[in-house]
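User: I'm curious whether this sequence folds into something compact or stays loose and floppy. Could you predict its structure so I can see for myself?
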Amino acid sequence: MKIAIHKEEGSFSDRWISYCKTENINYKIVNCYDSDIISQLNDCQGLMWHWTLSDYKSALFARQLFLSLEKKEINIFPNIDSCWHYDDKLGQKYLLEAIDAPLVKSYVFYTKKEALDWLEKTAFPKVFKQRGGAASINVSLVKTKRKAIFLVNKAFGNGFSHINRINRLKNRIWVLRRDKNFSAFKKVLTGFARIFLPNEVEHFSHNEKGYIYFQDFIPGNDFDTRLVVVGDKCFGIRRFCRKGDFRASGSGLWDPNPNKINKECIKIAFIVANKIGSQSIAFDFVIDGNNPKIIEISYCFPMGAQDKCLGYWEENLKWHEEKINAEVFIIRNFIEKCKNISNINCIK
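Assistant: Here's the prediction. I'll summarize afterward.
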């Protein structure tokens, strides 16, 4: 058995490759951007690629590549069930509604008239989101109908930049105030420069337009709950909002105490993960009254954050206190599946 890994510094591949070396797993490095990537995999039973929204190129073809590889009967991570809805809040809305998951009430409109008609009947505040983006960069609280009308006109006019540069700079200034280190200072300088000089992702991305997406605002939450389900394990943290802000994503303010995690969120996370058929899935939960509600989901998550978790739960809520390495959990499950497929093929 041999697996292929797309290597990219700072991605899950760092730990996958380290694990393969330590455990003597037969693997080879491939480049998924190569035109001959299909033939590169002829001697492999699986491909692992941690592709992300930070690279415009992967968004162009990663899903199509993985769909094609499923036809070739090659095991892949992430599989299609895990990733087709990645960085696509509209896709997540339809998926979660279809499986009756407790999604925060969400609204999408594809014509200006329908959106404006809805604004006349709805209550505020509402949360405005673009379909893509991480760390709350493309998320804002709309407190008035006047502001919502402005957003609708823009959505069905010139549209929105793929990355909100002002919000990105504000986030980096906040991190500098929190961390007070040179690394954060450099990111502020870069963020300021990006106001005038777009990066590669922005340069090759089109404006978001032709639709508008809102979610209900759930008051009374000064934190959200980030849970990750990998196979039969669930682990997570509480993430606190920045002062004067309703957003917890991207704040870097964490509490890993498992006793503070709402157990209903864990139950829901396992149920939804099983219904979707995901290999790895991260959930963001808020509490509406006494009821957990999902804000959004993702197959991947920032490196290192889950290391702070103190252990994991099984589906029956049995707790195991041990060091968490989400990336290792992923590759262990992946290798086990590859071995099973190899054994089945040998029998055939």
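Summary: The radius of gyration is 21 Å. The longest helix spans residues 326-347.
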